[in-house]
Structures are given as C-alpha cells and as structure tokens.
Amino acid sequence: MRFYFCFGILLCFICLIIIPKFSTGMPSSSGSTSNNESDPSVVNNNEQMYPITNYYVDKVKNSVLNLPYVEFFRRCFKIINFWTRSDQPDRTPNELINIMTEALQKEENILKESLCGCDVKNNDTITKKDALKVFTNKKCFKGKLFGNELNNVLNMYTDPQNQVKYKELLKNIVTHIEGYPIEVDNQETNDFIQLSFK
C-alpha cells in the first residue's frame, strides 16, 4: 500500500512538470466564461472600483492558487482520498477566488463608504482625525491597511488646511499597500494572502 501511495505522489510531481508545458489555459469550473469576463470595459471598471481587491486576488492567483496546478492536485487527492475531511466541503480554486473576492470587496466598500461619510463639505477631503478613525476601524481591513505607515501615507495626501484628499489617496492606494499582507474578516482569505507573501 505504501508503494502505491509513494508511486501516486511521484506520478503527480512528474505530471506537474510535464502538464504545464502543454497546457494552453486555466481550467474553469463552469467550462465557460461569462459575458462580463470577456468585456474589457467591465474588467477595467472593476479594476478602478476595487483596486485593493484586484491587487490581492491577482497576487494570490499568481502565487498560491496557480489554478492549473491546484486543480490537478485537487483531482489527484480526491482520487487517492488524501486530505479529505468530512466536515469541510470540497472547493475548487475558482470558488476560493470568489470567496476571497467577496470578502475583500465587502471591506473595500466599507472603507469607501466610511471615507465618503466623513466628507461633510463634499469637496473630496476629510479631516486628518476622521481619516485616522476610518483607517483604524476594526471593521475595515482590521484597522491595519497601512500598518505602521498610516501617518506617513496620510501626510502625503494632507493639504495645508490639514485636510486629507481621500479620493486621490484611493486612486493611488495600491502603491502604498504593495508588498504588505492585509487582514479581513474571512480567515480563509487571510491565510491565502499570508501565503502569497512567503
């Protein structure tokens, strides 16, 4: 029995090296793409609306959830009944990406709504005190979006009247979070983001 198990693992690794060379694309759980995925205007609009989500989802897709590899291993493990737990449903990589996207978008929406809610003058600026309160809110990326760099980031977007230009900050937000893992209210998402930085 041990021989068959070791042989199965060896076969998986051999196929892992050979299959990607002949693979032309990523597997899809549904087998087809939706109209939104093929429409470049919808994709660009999503990138503008959710820059934080897109940055971390792309990072996880390209490092941790390399979909052809994960899908291949998922099938292998299912066949040899390895790593299967009855209390946890079997999820495809695409389902995991969808869960992660929803969790990140939810918190990104909270961030935007909180910032807009503090803009009492409707001039795309808020007080530095309000900005600190929003970015340290535990419901929004656990209050750690910029980590120890929060004051430095806010100073970059603070005008002489001590008002933070939050719309400009949101437009350039990815440049300030690149290279840093974040946390959300979904532990599965946090695990994948942490792994993508290792």
Write the layout of secondary structure elements.
Layout: H1 2-22, H2 35-38, H3 40-49, H4 51-63, H5 67-79, H6 93-117, E1 126-127, H7 128-135, H8 150-156, E2 163-164, H9 166-171, H10 173-177, H11 187-196
Helix pairs in contact: 1-5, 4-6, 4-11
- In DSSP terms (H or I, runs of 4 or more residues), the helix count works out at 11
Q: Calculate the mean pLDDT score and round it.
A: 75
Whole-number radius of gyration?
21 Å
What is the helical fraction, as a range of percent? Answer: 55-70%
Structural class: mainly alpha
**Beta-strand level of the residues, as a percent range?**
under 5%
Query: Quick one: how many beta strands?
Result: 2
Topology order in helix (H) and strand (E) letters: HHHHHHEHHEHHH
Biggest pleated-sheet summary: 2 strands, antiparallel
Strands of the widest sheet, in order across it, are 1-2
The CA-CA distance between the termini, in Å, is: 34 Å
User: What is the overall shape?
Assistant: elongated
Domain unit count: 1
Low-pLDDT regions = 17-38, 79-86
Could you characterize what this model shows?
With 198 residues, this protein is mainly α. The protein has one domain. Helix content is 62%, strand content 2%. The chain has eleven helices and two strands, in the order ααααααβααβααα. It has a two-stranded antiparallel ribbon. α4 runs antiparallel to α6. The longest helix has 25 residues. The protein is elongated and about 65 Å long. The chain starts with a helix and ends with a helix.
